[in-house]
Amino acid sequence: MKKLAELPLIGLPIAALLTTWAVVTSAPPVTGAPAGGRAALVVAYNSPEKWANWGEVLKTFSAKTGLQAPSDPKNSGQTLAALKAEAAAPQADTAYFGIVFGIQAAEAGLLEPYKPAGFEEIPAGLKDPEGRWMTIHQGAVAFLVNTKVLGNTPMPQCWADLTKNEYKGKVGFLDPTQAAIGYSVATAANLALGGTLENWDPGIQYLAQLKANDLQLPAQTATALVQQGEIPILIDADFNGYQLKNNENAPVEVVIPCEGSLAIPYVIGLVKGAPNLQGGKQLIDFTLSNEGQALFAKSYLRPVRQVSVDPGIAAKMLPDSAYVKVTVPDFAQMRAVQEQFNERWKAEVMR
Fold it and tell me: Which sign does the torsion angle of CA 282, 284, 288, 290 carry?
């Protein structure tokens, strides 16, 4: 029988990993890890290797602790569904989500309170007071502008600019009734233009103007469309723009609109009844540590704590001053009013 360190764990589905660990529990423990098969494995739902630099984060965590922590390819919705299905016999130790899904998981009783070191540094609107979920990094709604396709047309700086005739047919974002980022875009515009989560009038009026200016509304991930120039101005997450510009050498610039924008937080939580509760806590500790925060920043997601970021990475992003007008709404309320928004969108914008 092979030793644990010799097993090809990376890349295996979580179910296969759990089966593997059940087979080898009599093998010697990984160096530095607790004895007892499952206690040497941390299962982190929604940790795709190429998303948010999770691959390097988990590899570094494993090297420091001796705990195996393979990547998991789920997204936020799949993670929530899996936690619900496995509630009687949890398989995961931690779960990572877009903030609204984290709130839902906590409300469903699927997450365990835990407050790691650094928890107190997280702003109040970006964590559950009991510690069932907490933001570890965030992006912001921004304009991703293909300057090559735009040519001599000025680069838009404000929400109001996008309704001008020179941008007719050049602006797009994901359908807000189908995609979380699309709803974030709509919310950002409404709040920046004087609306509230109770008053959508400014946002609906503005979105109707954009629609009249030939707004494009793709149903699925659209970053390739801005890179190719099919949508010269895509309203999306800032980090997607930074990746296009810095990693793909695309002629894309990132603009935080002058009237204001909206935070796009990503959160982590300890799974209630986690098989490896201590290992899950250790992973959460690492995600909020100075080292973990700096590793996530390599993917152009802004740390939730004030930590030193590689100057080379920071130089490729907008300065902190550009994010002063990025607001943090009541995300639970934002979720609660989404259906009301959808009805108005269909009736007043898409008519």
Answer: positive
